Amino acid sequence: MEDESLDSSLHILRSEYEGTREVYRKRRNEMPEAQVKMNVREAGDRASIIDVQGELTAFAEAVLMDAYSQASDGQVRAIILNFENLEYMNSSGIGLLVTLLIRINREKQRLLTYGLSEHYRSIFQITRLDDAIAIHDSEEEAVSAANSA
Amino acid sequence: MTEKPPNDETTEKREPRDAAYWASYAETLKVSGVAEGATNINVEGRRAVGPLQGFGKMWQKTYRVGLTGAETTPVEVIKTWKENYQEFWPEGNRFYAPLAGIAPGEVALISGSLPGGVKLSTGVMVLYADDESFSLMTPEGHPFSGWITFSSFEEEGNTVAQAQVLMRANDPLYEMGLRMGGHKMENEMWRETLENLATHFGVSEPVETNIVCVDPKLQWSQYRNIWHNAGIRSAIHSVTAPLRWRRNRPS
């Protein structure tokens, strides 16, 4: 009985996940092409890294949310954004990070970053994103922080 | 899951392309000049606050209008919007544009009204401004904590103008006010603003509104924001005006 209920819950979760991915895939096709690539990597058992390469603007929404869905599989408790190859960000890009943060908090995960240049660190400070997103100097430091808590 | 991509070393050495578009960091806001009729009681010395620092539910509100048939470009729309910001606002609210115009880091003063007719003196900081968009960020004490991004872009052969607000009510009192008519007032204000902008370009199209509750949680840790409430402070400032007048008149 319990197994059946667990199977049914898993089935619902899987359908919701596929549904969300499909929505983002569809929206990505409708939006002007995003000038950004995101690569998802594992970092230990409980963390995933999203390498952000290119421009973070409103057009990156579908790519970012898709990357988050991939990164968030399994037992992941922390998402690390690697900004070493961030080339451009406007205020809509900052807005995207806020909505991503809310989504991550809702899943009881943590959001960490590394690779921010001085310029982008300063933007995190102006927008007060640094109040809620931990900024680290290197991947090792971020992964260690993500896996230690 | 894949391997880490190689670092693009050229990007590390280049000046970021967006460097000129962002405000520089400052601990608190500084107003460079107070225009006649403006009141600078709730802006100078306040910190700018984003949607993460507010108290209420987080909302993303998008208002957009298609400038169908208008022979204009996104760059022209944003240039016009920046130069005539006050003219597109509905009556009853006043935006005192900074002397240097809408440019990164500049601070503008605002006088408006809250539900119930309470007069409000507040302001905004220009957080970001490029040729196709600009964003305003609110100070502590403003009815909401967050930013408003104005942008224009091409969509299906038409130029579209858009205002997007990402916000939380700043404190419990404002949250109550927003629920009791404040949201409606705000939606109406941005709808009218976009209609006025469209009219400027000779277009009469309906404004589309899309409202999403991004986070339904209240941030009780931020309840102390009420200390800076610009509505309360503006009301006290008005009530005590005769006392200041008596104190300052020549004897």
Topology:
The complex is a heterodimer of chains A (149) and B (251).
Chain A (H helix, E strand, L loop, with lengths): L1 H29 L5 E7 L4 E10 L4 H11 L6 E12 L1 H16 L3 E5 L3 H9 L7 E3 L2 H10 L1
Parallel strand pairs in A: 2-3, 3-4, 4-5
Antiparallel strand pairs in A: 1-2
Helix pairs in contact in A: 1-2
Chain B lengths: L8 H5 L34 E2 L8 E9 L7 H10 L1 H4 L5 E3 L10 E7 L5 E11 L3 E7 L4 E12 L2 E12 L2 H29 L7 E8 L14 H10 L1 H8 L3
Antiparallel strand pairs in B: 1-6, 2-8, 2-9, 3-4, 4-5, 5-6, 6-7, 7-8
Describe the structure.
- The complex is a heterodimer of chains A (149) and B (251).
- Chain A is an alpha/beta fold.
- Chain A has helices at 2-30, 61-71, 91-106, 118-126, 139-148, and strands at residues 36-42, 47-56, 78-89, 110-114, 134-136.
- Chain A has a five-stranded mixed beta sheet with strand order 1-2-3-4-5, with helices on both faces.
- The model of chain A has no long low-confidence stretch (mean pLDDT 86).
- In chain A, a hairpin with a 4-residue loop joins strand 1 and strand 2.
- Chain A has two domains: 1-30; 32-148, Transcription Regulator spoIIAA (2-Layer Sandwich).
- Chain B is an alpha+beta fold and 251 residues long.
- Chain B is 26% helix and 28% strand.
- Chain B is built from six helices and nine strands; from the N terminus they run αββααββββββαβαα.
- Chain B has helices at 9-13, 74-83, 85-88, 172-200, 230-239, 241-248, and strands at residues 48-49, 58-66, 94-96, 107-113, 119-129, 133-139, 144-155, 158-169, 208-215.
- In chain B, strands 1, 2, 3, 4, 5, 6, 7, 8 and 9 form a nine-stranded antiparallel beta sheet that branches.
- Chain B is globular and about 65 Å long.
- Classes of the chains: A alpha/beta (149), B alpha+beta (251).
- At the A-B interface, strand 1, strand 2, strand 3, helix 3 and helix 4 of A face strand 1, strand 6 and strand 7 of B.
